[in-house]
Amino acid sequence: MPLDVEVERTDGVAVLHARGELELATATQFQSALTELIEDGGVVVVDCAEVTFIDSSALRVLVQARLRLESSALLRLIIPRPSIRRIFELSGLAPEFSIYDSFEDALRAS
Amino acid sequence: MEGTPRRGRRPHAAAAALFAVLAAASVVLGVGAQHSITESDQRQLHTELGALEAQVQASLSDLGLPLTKLAGDAAQGDAAFRAVAQLFTPTPFVSVSLWRAGASPREVAAVGDPPVLPYPGALVGVRANGTLAALGRVGPLTEHTLGVAMRLASSPGWIVYGEDLLPAVGPGSPFAGLDFALYVGSISPINLVQATVSTPVRGPSLLGTFPFGTRHVDLVLALEHGAVGALPPAVPWAIGIGGVLVALIAAFVVERLARRREAAEHEATTATVAYGEQREIASVLQHAMKPVALPSFEGLELATAYVPGDGRLEIGGDWFDTIPLGTDRLFVTVGDVSGKGLAAASTMSALRHAIRAYAIQGDAPDDVLAKLSGLVDVRRDDHFATVLCAIIDVAERTVTVATAGHPPVLLRDRSGTRFVEGMVAAPVGVPSLRRPVATTVTVERDASVFLYTDGLVERRGFTVDEGLERLRAAIDSAQGSLESQVASVAAALSDEIPDDVALLGIHWLIDAALVRGAAQGEAR
């Protein structure tokens, strides 16, 4: 299943909406979109609400993006699905990210 | 000839880089190990046998891969054989030869010293099953040379025979000061391969046994004569030298892979042929990364199941390993390097060696994980690794487990099967402020723990919790011996998986104390 990536910019916040499967075959596409936003600076929100599967290749892309930023507050992940959030917990990566249930929560956080 | 290395050509950057990385990692680890050996004599004594065992095991584990390669290429002719065999002499082999299998095997080509053979007709019984045949000592005991042979099911007409010089035991050698006897096979004069003490060993002794090819190795370590403290200086050397050797072999295989690919493209060989050859080399490299053999461990029963993936041309990054720490404790580890290919495979190799080194030094599972963080950095290396380390204490009946992003171990006892939950640190290679924390649980008599590679629970169509529950339920309902339990669980869960998966079961024997007592009595 292909990955659909859509970028939206509002008030200094860049939002990357990802839909589909974040995995080996789509990691390069995901990485280039995310890297561009990171390089622009400011807060980047990755909306994973429509992500149905995530593997270690995609986790690596997110980790590398996170490590390029000084603070975890600059990269915010929206992960409402328990099954996707569970992958972050089991892999020990959940505490390394700022993870929110909804877009509103992600923006509200300062 | 297409498959023959072209001598005189410069090696590929990938092969050179792989060698450099692995060799550098080994040297760094060796030096690191040298600095951190400060454990008490008492502790050294306790871990000495395990360390010696691991050292011998590591040295012997380097023998299978070259012979497997040579046996697979045997049909390409004796010139090709000589060209490749030269790379494996004088180390690890002083002599490598190619033989035509049959009622009286005939020598076709030899590199290095002329082959001696442990006894006339030693090659007659070598079976075509791809298992390293441990034939026994070659020449007098003072030469401590071991004869081994390989015959593949895929080319049963050929036998590759090698003679391996075991590390010297004189002053200044890594083994200096240790009083031990090494037998390939049971403890009997005809099976003695190397000894630094008069045999049979008298007085208090420890016995270590581990499988080696078609047979097993028995190590008898004498406790007297100031053996304490003699081993630690050997460990860094063993890690350093062994690691460089492995690096060389890995680099060689990578080089061959690169050259074959080039040759295949250059000569416009059909895609099918190229694929088959690359797959073969990939599987050789992967084979080298698989655990050598399970150690036999008094008081514990061990069993493993390994299921290869669906045959895509990719070298995976999964591994697991078992490292005896003396006679009381077993260090076990399972991990997965994110990503595929040779870079992931080389990181896996470096991590495996590092874990082995730290474990032998006596580091706790959480300390091992903390120390590994310096070896991989996702920002530099483009991958990270999920790693789980545990120490199984036979007599205390405890499991101490620490994990860096790897899913938890399963514990099965009379009340059911459950996960051993605890703190999960970030994967190795992801810099984090949270240090790994170990969890220790005491198990009932007759309990079992199970470690698994994450391919067994992570796949499309299931959430990870569903995958974990499927595994838990499969283990909970598995019947029969431990071996049939792990086999049935792996078979049930490994349908249509892209990844290789492995499952390791460890079962405390009910009468562990009795078994141990009896075995120690024998060793004396």
What can be said about this structure in brief?
The complex is a heterodimer of chains A (110) and B (524). By secondary structure, chain A is α/β, with parallel strands linked by helices.
Q: What can you see in these coordinates?
A:
The complex is a heterodimer of chains A (110) and B (524). Helices cover 38% and strands 34% of the residues of chain A. Chain A has helices at residues 27-40, 56-68, 82-90, 103-108; strands at residues 3-10, 13-22, 43-54, 75-78, 98-100. Chain A has a 5-stranded mixed sheet with strand order 1-2-3-4-5. The longest helix of chain A has 14 residues, at 27-40. The mean pLDDT of chain A is 90. Chain B is an alpha+beta fold. In chain B, strands 11, 12, 13, 14, 17 and 18 form a 6-stranded mixed sheet that branches. Chain B has a 5-stranded antiparallel sheet with strand order 2-1-5-4-3. A 5-stranded antiparallel sheet of chain B has the order 10-20-19-15-16, covered by helices on one side. In chain B, strand 13 and strand 14 form a beta hairpin. Classes of the chains: A alpha/beta (110), B alpha+beta (524). The A-B interface holds A 21, 24, 53, 55-57, 59-60, 63-64, 67-68, 83, 86-87, 89-93, 95-96 and B 336, 338-340, 378-379, 382-384, 386, 403-405, 407, 424-427, 430-432, 434, 458, 460, 463-465.
